[in-house]
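Entry: Response regulator
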Amino acid sequence: MKILLIEDDVELATSIERFFKIKAHNIDTFYDGFDVINHLEEKNIDYDLYILDVNVPNIDGLEILKFIRKTKIDVPVIIITASLEIETLQTAFNYGCTEYIKKPFNLLELEIRLDRVFYTKTDIVKIEDDFFYDKSSMELKYKEESIKFRKKEKLFVDILFKNIGFIVSNDSIIDYVWEGEVKEKYPIRQLVNTIRNKLPYDIIKTEIGIGYKIEG
């Protein structure tokens, strides 16, 4: 696996480098945001994973994330942050981060986050023995009966199950569910309430100001 890391704490960066090299991964490490942008503009390297500290010199990790997502839509990006302020997390998920990890952390926690990011999921997502989602047919079934959804409801459920265990940002939901339709206000809450009323019990978790998720 080819990894790009930006972390201005040299000791932490060295530990992360060692962690990946022991696992036979290749890692390019940077300590300055400006250097990362220059590198990405000059080199045509397909990284499998980006790990970005938010607070780095010159160009911060969130701006680097935004830059990456202009061309790399599906590559996992893990944000490292010393803060859990709602504004920081909201911006990170709006810009398309896959997962985040809060400083200080140990390498076992990083490994757990990586397992979440790269865990291979089957088409069938089981919630309970009699409650599951089929990603191939976009059907949510309870006791062998398919729950009926309108188109936008179905798309909302689908994007959450495609990203099960992760927060899906409000902006990502709008892009996926409304498919480019321009509105002054997107009635996400109303949509979620309608879906919840159709479920046997609530499986949708609200991350206030950020988005929604279904626990994996």
